[in-house]
Each structure stands twice: as structure tokens, then as C-alpha cells.
Amino acid sequence: MAKFHSLEVASVHHETPEAIVVGFRIPDALRSEFQFIHGQYVTLKLTVNGEELRRSYSICSSPLDIHEIRIAVKRVQDGRASTELVEKLKQGMTLEVMTPMGNFTTALDPTKERHFVAFAAGSGITPILSILKTVLRSEPKSRFTLFYGNTDRDRIIFRKKLDELKTQYTDRLAVHHILSQGKDEDALFNGRITTEKAKQLLGRFVADALHKEFFICGPEQMMVNVSEALESMGVDKKQLHIELFTSPVTSGAKKPPVAVGEGAFKGTAKVKVILDGRETEITVNANGDAVLDVALDAGLDVPFACKGAVCCTCKARVVEGQVEMAMNYALTDEEVADGYVLTCQTHPRSANVTIDYDQH
Ligand SMILES: Cc1cc2nc3c(=O)[nH]c(=O)nc-3n(C[C@H](O)[C@H](O)[C@H](O)COP(=O)(O)OP(=O)(O)OC[C@H]3O[C@@H](n4cnc5c(N)ncnc54)[C@H](O)[C@@H]3O)c2cc1C
User: Fold this and answer.
1) Which amino acid residue places its CA nearest to atom 10 of ligand 1?
2) Which atom of ligand 1 is nearest to the CA of 312?
3) CA 20 to CA 38: how far, in whole Å?
4) How many domains, the chain?
């Protein structure tokens, strides 16, 4: 099961005025627990002004670069955790870091010859950098095209790293910067990535989009715009990988109850929670708080982070009974079909339910 460990901060590098890149030293004893797949994230547990915060940050290093896990944190306006990290984190400090997780990834195969395309904006570059580096090193015949939106040149996170990679992989990596305050002679590279601009970029730089695999990560509106552009071009949803950093609906507080459908179970369910091999029974109202909130109120140390259905830290498997999720932006269709749920969104729909956090 996912667990927090104290990790030493090996390095802090100020990448742009608002963003830092943080390296964690992984002791030998924890190396297997911190093994990760390109595109995954870790969750940090911080105390800021007496308040415990859990925040997820994507890993920007490649799993092929051993001994260190690196993340990039961009300060958001009035952001509690990101401001604390960007302003105060120093080399040598320790942080509580949860073992890696996440589905924003794809299986790689060195024999394949593919063309991956990514749209990133701002800190959305972080998981995409990990994917891009891993693809270029693991699939020697594959190509990668990145469309990367930022306000201006000075705010481009990993600008130098991307330049180096372009030099190293001249024939296989293309990077197109789109700057909202840019003054390029070609207007296509100036302004925000709207649906129309995404279509034009794809039309000019990506032949045959119907047969590509796409990664999208950045502010919600950019992701909506790019998804719309791809859908209008006939790209199948199965070809899209999308990572949300913020929930479109909630800020992490307890959610209002979900409406219970006609004829569905409306009572109080006995929910057996399996955690670290131990079983605990909790009582959960069908139209009350989600299973995660009730389990936390009961004092169980169940894993969680965003509480807004965008990360999968609170994932568990339903092994008995019926449940319903209010939202899901993190689990794949296959995982849902296999009985996995985001417990921050899960409500019982039968009198007896068993949820296993050990089957993460
Ligand atoms: C799977 C996953 C991976 C993530 N990876 C990264 C990453 O690699 N780098 C990174 O910097 N962040 C990443 N995030 C976002 C990160 O977890 C925090 O949400 C972010 O740092 C803001 O936290 P905060 O405590 O500073 O802001 P809060 O105090 O929680 O929020 C302050 C205000 O800012 C708004 N806000 C919160 N997050 C954002 C945002 N991302 N953009 C704009 N406004 C926002 C809130 O709605 C609120 O109004 C990721 C999130 C998830 C779920």
C-alpha cells in the first residue's frame, strides 16, 4: 500500500522565478518502493501554519535516471503548499513523501516505431518531460512532438533541458513553444492554445493525427481546448492521456452528497475496510459522506491527497457489494471495470460493502 517516508531533499534549483525543481535522495532500503513509471507523481505531506496539507507533484525525472526522484513545483497565486515550498525549501531538509503512483503513462516497447504528441502548459510540463525522456531513450525508432504553452520565455520551465534534448535527438524530438505574450512573426506561436490554434498546430506539424498517442497536461481550459480539437479531428478518446492538476469541481473540502438514483439502495451500509491486512467496519450513509471521509473520521490511516477525483492516491478495490463514484478523472476504464474506485468519491449502493486498500 502507498506509504509516506521521510526523504532528504538532495537539491533545490530555482528553474524560473515561480518554479523550483526538487531532487529527493532515495536511500538503498527504499529504492524498490520508490521505483516509478514515467508520468507518475508523488504526494507530499506538509504542515503550513499549523495546517496539514497533502499535495501531489509529478515526477520530472525518468525512471531510467536512478538514485534520485525529481519534481517541479510552480507557485500558484495564494497557494499554501506551493508558496511554502518555493520560498522555504532548502537542500538537506526532509519531507514526507508518499510512494509514487498514477496512470498518466503508456507502456513502451523498444521494437515499436511510434509518434507521440504532447500538449503541455506551465507546470503541466513536469510529467511530460519524464515521459518524453523515457520514450526517446527506450524506443529508439519513435518520435515525440511537444507543443508547450507559457506566458513568456522567462517562465518556460525546463527551457534549457528541452533545448539540450532537441540537440541530442535532432531527428526525433520537435518542441514548439507557444507564448501567450509572445511576439513571434508567425502568429500561430503567440497567444493561448485555443481549440482553433490546437487544430492549426496539429495540421501543420502532425501528419495523420488519427494514428498518434496524445498526452495533455496543463490548465483545465487548455486541456478542454486540445481535447475538443482532437475529438473534432476524429481522434479516439483511447488515444488520449489526460492529467488534471486541479479538480474541476471541488477544492478538497468534504463534498455534498451525491443524489441516489431511483430504486437504488438508500440506507446505511456496513462497509468493511481492509487496510494493512486489518479489517475495520464503518457505517456509511448512501447519501452521506464518501467512504474515505468516514474512514478518516473513524481514525483509519487511509491514503489520500486531492480529495477531488484528480489523483488516485485514495484508490482501493471493491471486493464485495455495490458502490457509486460521484466523479472520476484519474482511474482508467479498465481499472473501474476491475472494481477499483477513488474512495474520496465512493458511496455505498448496497447494505454490505467490502473495500480493500491493500489491493492498490
Ligand atoms: C496528480 C497531480 C499532479 C500534480 N503535479 C504537479 C506538478 O508537477 N507541479 C505543480 O506545480 N503542481 C502539481 N500539481 C498541483 C499541486 O498538487 C497543488 O495543487 C498546487 O501546488 C497548488 O497547491 P497549493 O497548496 O499551493 O494551493 P492551494 O492553497 O490548495 O490553492 C490556492 C488557490 O489556487 C488555486 N489552485 C490550486 N492549484 C492550482 C493550479 N495548479 N493552478 C492554478 N490554480 C490553482 C486553488 O483553487 C485556490 O484558489 C499536481 C496535482 C495533481 C493532482
Assistant:
1) 73
2) 1
3) 20
4) 3
